[in-house]
């Protein structure tokens, strides 16, 4: 399974409509409205690299109101336990 985090900039007056259309796409598991440099963040989970192009370049980017996208491909997921160990720095409680 491949996971991509997609930042989406939209026309400000179309954020809810764009979010609904993106969320309805096959391969999109979640869509969030966010603060910061992007208007929306979409989580895309697919089986093949070609599927990323299908979802992001061929579908998300062509939704009316989408101005630009920026995609981050996830390499590895860390569980809460892994994160706790990474930040513990070997210090005793």
From TrEMBL:
It holds the Pfam family AsnC_trans_reg. Residues 6-76 form the Transcription regulator AsnC/Lrp ligand binding domain. InterPro entries: Dimeric_a/b-barrel, Tscrpt_reg_AsnC/Lrp_C. One of its GO terms (molecular function) is sequence-specific DNA binding. GO terms for cellular component: cytosol. One of its GO terms (biological process) is response to amino acid. This is Lrp/AsnC family transcriptional regulator. It comes from Oerskovia turbata.
């Amino acid at each position: 399974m491949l996971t991509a985090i997609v930042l989406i900039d939209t026309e400000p007056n179309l954020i809810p409509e764009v979010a609904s259309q993106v969320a309805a796409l096959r391969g999109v598991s979640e869509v969030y409205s966010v603060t910061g440099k992007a208007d929306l963040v979409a989580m895309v989970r697919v089986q093949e690299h070609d599927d990323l192009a299908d979802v992001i370049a061929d579908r998300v980017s062509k939704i009316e109101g989408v101005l630009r996208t920026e995609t981050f491909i996830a390499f590895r997921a860390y569980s809460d336990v892994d994160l706790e160990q990474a930040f513990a720095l070997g210090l005793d409680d």
